[in-house]
């Protein structure tokens, strides 16, 4: 990432100090994170759920096994109505986790437009479990959410940015999912995402302007003042950025991407 000269002696303190100075210069504090494997996180979340529910539904035995043996009393072996209802609910809801794991094989790399909605659906499912009338499912959801939130807190901002930059979605998915996920805090979360992407845009614009440098100013100064050229440049960038985020279907997405 960088080549720097470190004066002798090359002690551990000197090297660590040089590295720290680079980090401070790059201004990347709290901007670098570990991107975990989604399939692995899903597996951990599901395993937590199974381990907590297993004892509650252990009497729900497959009928195939029951028919192979003779029992004096099936009432003793078969689960009660509550156990069967809970097993049915768990099986139905875990379908989503199975579908997600099928979508995220290790040999394929999905685009954010497919990845992000599934992740949001998983969190919505866990949130619905958390308010279940069944105490076992409710406790299970709380534990699963702890595992899931460790992943969500890290990736949801990055995934949101990727979705916004997709001209087919822009802010549509964010505006749809965030109110369901955050309730009254949705507006502040959406504004946070907008501020982050605006910050990235300003940083990119600054680098682009620095590269163009004096040549751009000379071109603008041919017929108009340098001040007007600077204003024109800024307004053009801002209009493009606003158009990119707008919901106007008349915006030429493909032409904008090619440019």
TrEMBL record:
Residues 107-204 form the hAT-like transposase RNase-H fold domain. It comes from the Eukaryota. GO terms for molecular function: DNA binding. Pfam families: hAT-like_RNase-H (PF14372). This is hAT-like transposase RNase-H fold domain-containing protein. It comes from Lactuca sativa (Garden lettuce). The lineage of its organism: Eukaryota, Viridiplantae, Streptophyta, Embryophyta, Tracheophyta.
């Amino acid at each position: 990432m960088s080549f720097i000269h470190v004066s002798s002696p090359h002690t551990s303190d000197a090297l660590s100090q040089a590295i720290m100075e680079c980090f401070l210069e790059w201004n990347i504090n709290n901007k670098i994170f570990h991107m975990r494997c989604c399939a692995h996180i899903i597996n951990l979340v599901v395993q937590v759920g199974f381990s907590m529910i297993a004892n509650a539904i252990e009497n729900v035995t497959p009928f195939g096994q029951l028919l192979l043996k003779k029992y004096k009393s099936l009432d003793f072996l078969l689960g009660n109505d509550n156990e069967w209802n809970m097993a049915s609910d768990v099986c139905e809801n875990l379908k989503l986790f199975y579908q997600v794991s099928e979508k995220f094989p290790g040999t394929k790399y999905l685009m954010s437009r497919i990845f992000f909605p599934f992740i949001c659906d998983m969190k919505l499912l866990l949130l619905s479990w958390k308010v279940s009338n069944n105490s076992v499912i409710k406790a299970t959801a709380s534990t699963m959410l702890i595992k899931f939130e460790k992943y969500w807190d890290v990736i949801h901002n990055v995934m949101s940015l990727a979705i916004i930059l997709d001209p087919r979605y822009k802010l549509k998915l964010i505006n749809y999912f965030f109110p369901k996920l955050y309730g009254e805090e949705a507006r502040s979360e959406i504004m946070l995402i907008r501020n982050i992407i605006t910050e990235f845009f300003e940083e990119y614009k600054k680098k682009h302007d620095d590269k163009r440098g004096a040549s751009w100013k000379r071109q603008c100064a041919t017929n108009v003042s340098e001040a007007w050229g600077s204003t024109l440049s800024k307004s053009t960038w801002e209009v493009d950025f606003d158009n990119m985020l707008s919901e106007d279907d008349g915006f030429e997405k493909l032409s904008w991407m090619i440019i």
